[in-house]
């Protein structure tokens, strides 16, 4: 058996080169906590969902779990900062979200807008009647929809490009980024990880370990003796060439699928949820379903079915109760978990990075993370 080599000691080892792991590394760097290695088992960073998502940066929506509201509000501020102050170019743009409604939903939507319309609890939203909806989105189906909730502050961006900006900044600060090498095991002594084994034959002895392995966090955590109920949930994305037509202005958010414009001549149709393990094959049934739903929202898409540029399927990390897992388990002294971001991992990446880096550097975070504790899944927590 080949002997293992040891690497120079790092203060923190981050497992996972998706957008969550990269954001944690970046915010550690902002605290001058730079003796860090990020390890990714694929040959490139952000090859999974972090490089292939829809790019929606949602603000607080009334439909979202309340526990998430403080995180979403803070992440929205951080995105503005990353684009404006840090000068990161990741196609950040405020285009708003439209949640379209039928005639039956009009009264409910109006009441919701009245309740939250004045920035109540950080939410900004407006009710649009049929004429206003049509003015904002000329191609939306006014046969199907007669009103909408409009979230004007919602943004869009490119997660792959942001990942590149974060990685560049980390390298400039002297951090180490290792690809094509995965973490394969741990040695634990007295409630602390003392050794980490990697597939490239190294033995690492970091002070702190961060598990940011997306849908694979369950297997990494199991090797640490912590059972985290995180599973992969597949979603699909179809990119369509509109031939230069601006088909939609906002992120049109249907109940299962959505339509957004991510460049002058491309729209993306996306969504769907399948619990089919780690399989990332494209499912033609879901593609048909996505088209049917998208056409019912934006009928002009019907003539663009031949203009598909690409179709992909990727895996979201889903925790059994639907909330992210953020923080330390009482079972291990020097391990932090950051996973289970499900449909909001791009949107929640900056706040996750900032808060996990605070936990590591300060021992506490500015937003209470008790609702997201990994220990909520322990039988006698
Ligand atoms: C179709 C679709 C559309 C989406 N749209 C949006 C959207 O509009 N807005 C939004 O906010 N979110 C969206 N998401 C969700 C978002 O993409 C995810 O929540 C986010 O990418 C999760 O990031 P992550 O870093 O946790 O996981 P990942 O991107 O999966 O990264 C985890 C990384 O860990 C690595 N890894 C695993 N095990 C090991 C190991 N043992 N050693 C080393 N490395 C390891 C993996 O190779 C992987 O690269 C969408 C997702 C899908 C599928």
Overall description:
The chain has 381 residues and is of the alpha/beta class. It has two domains: 5-53 and 160-229 and 321-377, FAD/NAD(P)-binding domain (3-Layer(bba) Sandwich); 95-153 and 232-316, D-Amino Acid Oxidase, subunit A, domain 2 (D-Amino Acid Oxidase, Chain A, domain 2), CATH 3.30.9.10. The protein has eight helices and 21 strands. The strands form four sheets. Strands 7-8-6-16-17-18-15-19 form an eight-stranded mixed β-sheet, with helices on both faces. Strands 10-3-2-14-21-20 form a six-stranded mixed β-sheet, with helices on both faces. A hairpin with a 6-residue loop joins strand 20 and strand 21 (335-339). Helix 1 crosses helix 8 (349-362). The mean pLDDT is 96. Residues 15-21, 39-42, 47-50, 53-56, 182-183, 212-216, 220, 235, 237, 270, 314, 316-317, 339, 341-347 line the site of flavin-adenine dinucleotide (FAD).
Helix content: 10-25%
CATH architecture group name of the largest domain? 3-Layer(bba) Sandwich
What would you call the shape? globular
* Low-pLDDT residue intervals, each spanning 5 or more residues: none
Question: How large, in whole angstroms, is the Cα Rg?
Answer: 21 Å
Number of domains: 2
CATH class of the largest domain: Alpha Beta
* Average of the residue pLDDT scores: 96
Main β-sheet description: 8 strands, mixed
Number of helices: 8
In CATH, what is the homologous superfamily of the largest domain?
FAD/NAD(P)-binding domain
What is the CA–CA distance across the termini?
41 Å
Q: List the secondary-structure elements in sequence, H or E.
A: EEHEEHEEHEHEEHEEEEEHEEEEHEEEH
CATH topology of the largest domain: the name is: FAD/NAD(P)-binding domain
* Number of strand elements: 21
Judged by helices, strands and strand pairing, the structural class is alpha/beta
Q: Please state how the strands of the largest beta sheet are arranged side by side.
A: 7-8-6-16-17-18-15-19
Beta-strand percentage range? 25-35%
Write out the distinct hetero groups bound to the structure. flavin-adenine dinucleotide
């Amino acid at each position: 058996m080949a002997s293992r080599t040891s690497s120079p000691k790092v203060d923190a080892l981050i497992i996972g080169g998706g957008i969550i792991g990269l954001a944690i590394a970046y915010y550690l760097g902002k605290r001058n906590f730079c003796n860090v290695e990020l390890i990714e088992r694929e040959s490139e960073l952000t090859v999974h969902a972090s490089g292939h998502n829809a790019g929606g940066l949602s603000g607080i929506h009334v439909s979202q779990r309340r526990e998430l509201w403080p995180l979403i509000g803070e992440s929205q501020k951080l995105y503005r900062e990353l684009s404006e102050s840090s000068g990161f170019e990741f196609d950040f743009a405020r285009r708003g979200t439209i949640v379209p409604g039928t005639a039956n939903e009009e009264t409910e939507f109006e009441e919701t807008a009245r309740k939250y319309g004045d920035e109540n609890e950080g939410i900004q939203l407006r009710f649009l009647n049929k004429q206003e909806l049509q003015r904002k989105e000329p191609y939306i189906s006014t046969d199907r929809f007669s009103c909408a909730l409009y979230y004007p502050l919602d943004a869009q961006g490119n997660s792959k490009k942001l990942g590149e900006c974060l990685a560049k900044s980390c390298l400039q600060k002297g951090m180490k980024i290792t690809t094509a090498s995965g973490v394969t095991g741990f040695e634990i002594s007295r409630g602390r990880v003392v050794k980490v084994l990697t597939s490239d034959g190294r033995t690492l002895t970091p002070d702190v370990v961060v598990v940011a392995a997306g849908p694979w966090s369950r297997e990494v955590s199991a090797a640490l003796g912590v059972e985290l109920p995180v599973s992969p949930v597949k979603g699909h994305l179809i990119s369509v060439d509109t031939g230069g037509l601006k088909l939609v202005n906002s992120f049109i958010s249907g109940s299962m699928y959505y339509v957004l414009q991510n460049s002058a001549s491309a729209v993306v149709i996306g969504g769907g949820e399948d619990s089919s393990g780690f399989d990332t094959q494209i499912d033609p049934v879901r593609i048909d379903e996505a088209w049917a739903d998208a056409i019912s929202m934006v009928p002009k898409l019907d003539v663009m079915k031949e203009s598909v540029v690409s179709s992909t399927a990727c895996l979201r990390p889903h925790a059994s109760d639907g909330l992210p897992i953020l923080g330390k388990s009482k079972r291990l002294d020097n391990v932090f978990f950051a996973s289970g971001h499900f449909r909001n991992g791009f949107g929640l990446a900056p706040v996750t990075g900032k808060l996990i880096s605070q936990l590591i550097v300060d021992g506490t975070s500015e937003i209470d993370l008790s609702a997201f504790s990994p220990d909520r899944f322990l039988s006698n927590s």
